[in-house]
Design a protein that fits this description.
2 copies of one chain form a homodimer. With 263 residues, the first copy, chain A, is an alpha/beta fold. Chain A has 13 helices and 5 strands. The structure holds a DNA duplex (30 and 30 nucleotides).
Chain lengths: 263, 263
DNA sequence: TGGTAGAAGAATACATTATTCAATCAACCA
DNA sequence: TGGTTGATTGAATAATGTATTCTTCTACCA
């Protein structure tokens, strides 16, 4: 602790710049770990030499010494309690609600990855690659995810359109041809609106890719390629959040597949 | 402990010089604190470049990273267990349900979760809750993520607006007041455009929340609350993908925080 | 008004770290 | 045996990071 304490103690007798440095370090102790003297200087808005002089004024040989001292001083503050923290703390540290989220998310991700055949993922990637246009349709709860997918596809050079309000659903499907593709995204509810579109598309020979919850979802039945998210057992609001994590994970898998295929 | 354990574990598959280095470090862990790569090289009787290469082979960016890792690992105290108490490291690969992408993603998520103080996350959640309007601005590469965040916020009843093209940036900030908030999102590049907006906002007393890459990002310097994503070491296209995973994870953390706070 | 001390940054000297490249060595194999 | 491949190594050097010097500026004071 000494080093940080010293800084706090001397704060009053410091010059303006020195105080700025001290404050920054006290506020962002962890960051220092990977800051060079120049980076710290930029972050605080002083010159690199001021950083060095500051270090020396505090009694260290130079900046690296200060850095180490700060680090030691800081690490001393962390109690490393009760044995088993060997696996570099899964998501976020202590048992906060946030790290708990990390655990649950991991579970969903693993389950989701587990139920989707590599085959199907590959097929989806191939279909996307070959499609001329891709229409993305989603249920109400999956709008944000659908937008995200659409944007990624556009970035990759795929001609994708997201049907925001569902108004255009029917007429857009009408304008698609055989070389095109419809991607339907759905979470726990509201698949009804998608079924018709999917059906209609299939009749016209348009490939349909579905991204729905695992285990019976009316929308997926009408799809050529089906990808699934395994929902968590959580109660409502968190479940939605986690479900989206799963959806996003699938999307990331697709994108990564497309990236590889590109080369 | 991971770092020293890893060294011990890999000892058998090392070349002569590498093993000499590993042995020396394991025997003289404390000394490393004040050794430069050259000093370590001399002490062991190898060339300086071998020391650097050794560090990189173990998965660190360079010698300083190794040094820090060893130091951290050592500071963690002495733990007893002999047997395999940690994740399969090198070739083992094992049948994790997660794909290779999944593994990398997990790494980014863990790192990202690790570098953000719970404090800061909480502060961000609180600020969002208290804000009247939230403007979301992003660099080019983070548009999709920003859209996603905006949508989630709207869903939660927060009045959020995403400034798609950056055209409105300045005028929108102008129309914000003290009770409002600006959220800037940035990945590896293109932070320049955000700095001015952030600065301007701050001058007007508007809270600024940044969501940027860890370790030096000009945009984050001008923010009141800073959240970071730890980028992966991957090469370009995958790195982007993984970086977004990290960004999304932070967003999910925020959303989950907001959900909890709501009750 | 001029002198002095302290603080700050630009330029630069110095030190450390990372990379490139060529030499060496071991393993494999026709 | 001799040739080929791939890994390992260190010397030279490029790149990056740190410390010093020197100059400028400001505040204070006689």
């Amino acid at each position: 602790m000494t080093c940080l304490l010293k800084m706090r103690a001397m704060r009053e007798q410091m010059s303006v710049n020195e105080r700025k440095l001290a404050d920054f370090i006290l506020d962002n102790t962890k960051l220092l770990r990977d800051y060079s003297s120049q980076q710290l200087a930029d972050a605080v808005g002083v010159s690199q030499s001021s950083v060095v002089k500051f270090s020396q004024k505090l009694g260290y040989k130079g900046y690296p010494s200060l850095k180490l001292a700060v680090y030691e001083s800081y690490a001393g503050g962390i109690s490393s309690p009760v044995g088993g923290d060997d696996a570099p703390l899964p998501f976020g540290g202590a048992n906060t609600p946030l790290s708990e989220l990390g655990q649950k998310k991991l579970e969903v991700l693993e389950n989701t990855a587990g139920i989707n055949d590599l085959e199907h993922l590959r097929a989806a990637v191939k279909a996307i690659r070959n499609a001329r246009c891709i229409q993305v349709s989603a249920c109400d709860g999956s709008v944000s995810v659908a937008q995200y997918l659409t944007y990624q596809l556009l970035e990759l050079g795929c001609w994708a359109v997201f049907d925001q309000g569902g108004m255009l659903q029917r007429s857009m499907v009408d304008s698609l041809g055989e070389e095109d593709m419809l991607c339907i995204i759905c979470d726990m509810h509201g698949e009804e609106s998608l079924v018709e579109a999917a059906n209609h598309a299939r009749e016209k020979g348009i490939k349909v890719l579905s991204l729905t919850r695992y285990n019976y979802n009316a929308a997926s039945i009408h799809a050529d390629i089906r990808l699934y998210v395994m929902p968590s057992e959580e109660e409502q609001p968190l479940q939605r959040l986690l479900f989206r994590s799963g959806q996003l994970h699938l999307i990331e898998s697709l994108v990564s597949g497309l990236l590889v295929a590109e080369q």
